[in-house]
């Protein structure tokens, strides 16, 4: 997947260069350049996947320019600078309601949002306090660092998702780990005394949201330095575990079209920063 991206980017760049300089060579390049995408489409990839692959290439040359080629702590520091300095949009907690109605809209029904954990499609207007309403789930539980709902990490929609009220309550402020008993109202999710395991389709989303928060919040803007660790008993510390499991989940459940779309809506319309791990899931292992 990632090799394909790099290859395609390389070919696109080559085509442009050839087209502008070497007319004779350029006549042969496009035939080569179309070979890989055609084979890719034939193997079941959708048009949307191809388009987002190309758009990531565009962001590499602009949005991620300073981070490209870096590894480890250097990469993390660079991404922190990028996603902090470009976050020119910051929401109030009240504005989060309407934002989530757009970022998490059901692509099959524009009157609905899709809920995290349960995966159900539910009316945008059924947000509220009742057990079967949806509310604003802080995937990075706000008690972990005690940042509340002031504008900042508590209103950062990169980690806020619509969720069934009682399922949200079941997750509570637990760390993430495997195991437990199945959540009756949200099959495929499991929980025990000290941890919560989201259903398979949400595992990677949860991992990438947690790791976005770890990079975005480094203690330099009046909020705690959020970091993952490998524990499940973090309580109110600004940590969430378990990183070893989150890394597995990120690999197991790669970014979906839905996840890429919400990243794009947040970038275009609300916060103007991006979740680097949705654009470059391989950066998870580069940093942790
Ligand atoms: Ca997913
Ligand atoms: Ca941090």
Automatic annotation (TrEMBL):
What GO MF terms are annotated?
hydrolase activity; nuclease activity
Q: Please state the span of the N-terminal signal peptide per the UniProt entry.
A: 1-26
Keyword vocabulary terms for this entry: Hydrolase, Nuclease, Signal
Database matches in Pfam families: Endonuclease_1
Region Disordered: list its residue ranges: 144-201
Stored SUPFAM superfamilies: His-Me finger endonucleases (SSF54060)
Q: What is the protein name given in its UniProt record?
A: Ribonuclease
Q: Which organism is it from?
A: Streptomyces piniterrae
């Amino acid at each position: 997947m990632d090799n394909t991206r790099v290859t395609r980017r390389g070919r696109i760049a080559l085509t442009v260069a050839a087209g502008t300089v070497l007319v004779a060579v350029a006549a042969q390049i496009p035939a080569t350049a179309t070979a890989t995408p055609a084979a890719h489409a034939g193997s079941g990839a959708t048009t949307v996947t191809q388009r987002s692959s190309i758009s990531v290439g565009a962001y590499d040359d602009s949005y991620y320019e300073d981070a490209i080629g870096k590894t480890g702590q250097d990469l993390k520091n660079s991404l922190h600078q990028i996603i902090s300095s470009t976050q020119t949009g910051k929401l109030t907690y009240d504005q989060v309601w309407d934002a989530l109605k757009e970022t998490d809209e059901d692509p099959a029904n524009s009157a609905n949002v899709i809920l995290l954990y349960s995966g159900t499609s539910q009316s945008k207007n059924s947000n509220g306090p009742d057990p079967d309403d949806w509310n604003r789930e802080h995937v990075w539980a706000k008690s972990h660092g005690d940042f509340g709902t002031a504008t900042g990490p508590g209103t950062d929609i990169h980690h806020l998702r619509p969720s069934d009220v009682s399922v949200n309550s079941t997750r509570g402020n637990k760390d993430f780990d495997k195991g437990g008993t199945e959540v009756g109202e949200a099959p495929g999710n499991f929980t025990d005394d000290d941890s919560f395991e989201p259903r398979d389709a949400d595992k990677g989303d949860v991992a990438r949201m947690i790791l976005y928060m770890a990079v975005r919040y480094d203690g330099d803007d009046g909020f705690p330095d959020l970091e993952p660790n490998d524990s499940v008993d973090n309580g109110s510390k600004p940590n969430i575990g378990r990183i070893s499991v989150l890394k597995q989940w990120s690999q197991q459940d790669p970014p979906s079209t839905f996840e890429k779309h919400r990243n794009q809506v947040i970038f275009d319309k609300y916060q103007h920063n991006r979740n680097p791990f949705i654009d470059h899931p391989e950066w998870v292992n580069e940093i942790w």
